[in-house]
Design brief:
Serine Threonine Protein Phosphatase 5, Tetratricopeptide repeat, mainly alpha, 24 helices, about 600 residues, Transferase(Phosphotransferase), domain 1
Length: about 600
């Protein structure tokens, strides 16, 4: 160590070895020719505490001896002591931190060949240690190299680790949120299904249920808007979605159900259900899928009829019936299939009324009633009520045939319906059908000119429909039929020469039809009914004018003219579109020309009437 001095260098104080390598040069000049400096014993100047084992033994010396001496000096610099010369020296060297201990140990190996091969290699290993990189003095393992990399790049690794952790945390959060969203979706799907099918199904037949059903529609539509995007590629979810649209259509405007009178909205819902179901049926030709398509076709047909598209309605109904008859042929003993077939026969009759095809109508009504009779024989009270309704409508069809009557069917049906309602008075649907039975048998009496009997039945129908309207004032179906009852009673009173009694009833009919027509501008039936109401009101005023005199007579003619004008304003646009069909309205054959004549006659009478 006396050969090592400190001095100033370009990097500050540096250690310098004064004669490192110079001794060799000087000794080389003093050797005899051929004599090897590394093997000579003439000159063995050394400091024992810093000499290598081979120097002390007098063995051949090499650069490895210098490395050993440097190792001793490094040990002394690091620990303040020289390393012990004993077999246990490697264990005692463990006081140094990490790889530094391995570097010193390698420089102090007993065997020269196990030390660093050169001073440069020794120096480079020290620089590797200072740089945090793997060193030669330690076995190169994956865990060791990774540890060195982490210690050398702790900030970069820490930043990378934070990024990875954030990504992992984000993935876990996303997965948690996705699972939470899935659970929420399943729960909302269950709740919405409960509202649309279970709750609505339990209240649909109750009087006064329409406002609650409207709220169900609002909730259901909110659910459907979100569900539609999720249903792609999920047949079961699409099937639920179609059923939900079907139910919404029923509540919005199902012609023969309690509904809100929104025909256009109902048609849109039915068409959505039909598109989904046809797509499912194209991939799955199952009986269940076919049944659902048939149901949607029938519903679309009903709404087409409501907006005056009779031919298109018949087309949809025939396709629906074809599918239902096909199903019944394959499953003749399946009660559900038979109920669907009966519904198909009932549905196709509705547009056929607009064609006056009563022979075909009677055939379908006969088949419908027969199916419900067979199902009712099993003891199902609702099947019996469906038979009573079908049987009553069969009587109506038979009454239009040249040799038909229909009275027996009406009497059978009315007896069954009255008996059922005596036990179950809150069944609004059966009460609705009973009122229709009363109304239709009354029309049968009217066609036979049995006006007193007809008036009695018409008033019974009116009383039942007023009850239904009082308990459920938002049911548009009831309002339509109630207005029809008011018109029928007014018409009969007018025919019996009692226009004074008919007048308030005619006004009631107009008020109801006005309210219904305001709901849906596309509802041809509602606007035709309102036109008929104004026409009847004009007829009542005209009869009053004929029986009156003076100012009352003139006022009555003015009222008649005004009513006919209002009727023409409604009927003429419908007729111009080719959608006017008064066959659906008993006791009325009306068109624009008739109304124009009525207006001219009223104005002529006004001119002749005294001021």
């Amino acid at each position: 160590p006396q050969n090592i001095v400190l001095g100033q260098g370009p990097r500050g104080e540096q250690a310098r070895l004064l004669d490192f390598g110079i001794a060799k040069l000087l000794l080389a000049e003093m050797l005899s020719p051929g004599e090897d400096l590394s093997a000579t014993h003439k000159f063995r100047a050394l400091t024992p505490d810093y000499a290598s084992p081979e120097q002390l033994r007098g063995d051949k010396i090499t650069t490895a001896s210098d490395i050993y001496s440097l190792g001793v000096i490094l040990h002394e610099l690091l620990t303040g002591t020289r390393p012990p010369r004993s077999p246990e020296s490697q264990k005692l060297l463990k006081r140094l931190p990490g790889d530094l201990d391995n570097i010193v140990a390698m420089a102090l190996k007993e065997e020269p060949e196990r030390r660093y091969s050169s001073v440069e290699q020794f120096s480079e290993d020290l620089l590797r240690y200072l740089g945090g990189r793997p060193v030669i003095a330690r076995k190169d393992t994956l865990s060791y190299r990774a540890g060195r990399f982490l210690s050398r790049n702790r900030f970069s690794v820490a930043a990378t680790a934070l990024v990875i952790l954030s990504l992992v945390a984000g993935a876990l959060t996303t997965r948690w949120q996705a699972e939470r969203a899935r659970r929420r979706f399943v729960e909302m799907r269950r709740i919405a299904n409960a509202f649309l099918f279970e709750i609505d199904g339990s209240i649909a037949r109750l009087p006064g249920a329409t406002p609650a059903r409207e709220r169900i529609v609002q909730l259901g539509l909110t659910y459907l808007d979100g569900l539609a995007e999720e249903s792609v590629g999920d047949p079961e979810l699409q099937r639920e979605l179609a059923a939900a649209y079907q139910k919404v259509g029923d509540i919005l405007g199902g012609s023969f159900n309690s509904n809100l009178g929104r025909s256009a909205d109902a048609l849109a819902g039915y068409r959505k259900a039909l598109r989904i179901r046809q797509g499912l049926y194209a991939r799955d030709r199952s009986a269940a899928a076919r049944r659902e398509v048939a149901q949607s076709l029938s519903s679309v047909g009903d709404m087409l009829l409501a907006i005056g598209e009779v031919d298109q309605s018949i087309q949809q109904m025939r396709e629906s019936l074809r599918l239902r008859e096909q199903a019944a042929a394959e499953q003749p003993r399946d009660a559900a299939v038979q109920r669907d077939l009966a519904a198909g026969y009932a549905a196709i009759v509705r547009p056929l009324v607009g064609k006056d095809d009563w022979a075909q109508i009677a055939e379908y009504r006969q088949k419908e009633a027969q199916i419900w009779r067979q199902l009712a024989d099993g003891g199902d009270p609702l099947a019996r009520m469906n038979w009573a309704s079908a049987n009553s409508r069969l009587g109506w069809a038979l009454s239009h045939l040249p040799t038909g009557d229909g009275r027996r069917q009406y009497e059978e049906s009315i007896a069954a319906q009255e008996e059922y309602l005596a036990k179950t008075p809150n069944d609004a649907q059966v009460r609705f059908e009973l009122a229709r039975s009363y109304a239709q048998i009354g029309l049968l009496h009217e066609r036979r000119n049995e006006l007193a009997l007809a008036l009695g039945e018409a008033r019974r129908a009116l009383a039942e429909r007023k009850k239904l309207n009082e308990t459920d004032p938002q049911d548009v179906r009831v309002k339509n039929f109630l207005a029809d009852s008011y018109r029928t009673v007014a018409r009969l009173l007018l025919a019996m020469g009692r226009p004074g009694e008919a007048l308030p009833l005619a006004h009631e009919a107009v008020a109801l039809n006005t309210a219904v027509a305001a709901i849906d501008p596309n509802d041809v039936f509602a606007h035709t009914a309102l036109g008929l109401g104004y026409w009847l009101l004009g007829q009542v005023h005209k009869a009053q004018a004929a029986a009156g005199s003076g100012a009352a007579r003139r006022e009555a003619f003015e009222n008649a003219r005004d009513a006919f004008r209002k009727s023409l304003a409604l009927i003429d646009p419908i007729e111009r579109k080719g959608k006017l069909n008064t066959r659906f309205f008993a006791g009325a054959k009306l068109n624009g020309d008739m109304l124009r004549r009525e207006i001219v006659e009223s104005e002529t009478a006004l001119t002749a009437a005294p001021q």
